[in-house]
Amino acid sequence: MEEDENLAFMKGSKLARSPAAASAPGAELQSMDPDARETPKRKSKACQEATCLENLQELGNILDEVHSRMMDKNTRHINMATRNMFVRMKELHTSINEASQASAAGRSARQEGLDAAVLCSKCSQSTKSMSMDKEQQTTTVWKKDAAAQTEPWRRLSQPLAAKRRQRNQEAEIPVSGWRVVAKKTRAAKKPARKPHRPDAVVVDAKGKTYSEVLALVTRREDGQLQDLSTSVNKVRRTANGNLLLELNRGDKESATRIKESFESVLNGVAEVRALSEDTRTRVLAISDLDPLVTTEDLVKALAEQFAIEPDSVNGEAERTEAINREAGSAPSRS
After folding, report:
1. Where is the stretch described as Disordered (predicted)?
2. DSSP secondary structure, 203-263, as one string
């Protein structure tokens, strides 16, 4: 009796007092049987469509049941059956989605195969036509042209070299074993353009320095020559120390009119000359003249030839032992 009481007040172990552990379903071990580890066979298209229809029908039935339960006023909570129905709907939806994607991938693969076949047939036809055209148009490639195809610095001169070679081939005509090479023609040179000097006015004041002449023309207190400043382009000193006024090209004011204006203002203080195409002198040297020709006859002939006044022609006769020459100076005709 005492032993039973002692056993009743003894401290028991926690393991004995703890409830038994619930048996959780473990993961299924893979079978070691080779037949069980084989890859499942691929389902046919008809089988996949039938499975998809069955899943759709089952999904519809579940949705109807869920709708009826949710609309029932007595049902106010989600029980285990309702939760299982939601889980099954998710599985059916995943299965249908995978089947749809597989079907779409198969259709796109078949379409790509058809497109590739069509392109290959077209490529083969175009390749054959291109090879035939290339065989017909094949020409001999010169060494120089072959080098120009690989060296970029020769590509610029390639068309010119080909044109020159073609011209040389046309000019080379075989005659009894010899080749006649055409003479190279040089391009005609354009005649050199004669420089045209602008019109100018020269002021020559005897006994005055250049600075005094410049002040006499450009720094007048009465301002009489200020209106002519717009016609002057440049003012410089000549080799003789005279003042030269270079006029603008194409100006309406002529050198002769400006000369007259200077002469009226300076009033004999300085000598004014106009240099233009009309007033510039030309020296003519005439040889092989008859000894009986006089200076008056020569001046008269030059005046008639150039349509000028005889007074503007000045001639000097000079006789040498080798030739008889009559020299005359006359203004050129514009």
Report:
1. 1-44, 144-169, 311-334
2. EE-TT--HHHHHHHHHS-SS-TTGGGGGGEEEEEE-TTS-EEEEEPTT-SS-HHHHHHHHH
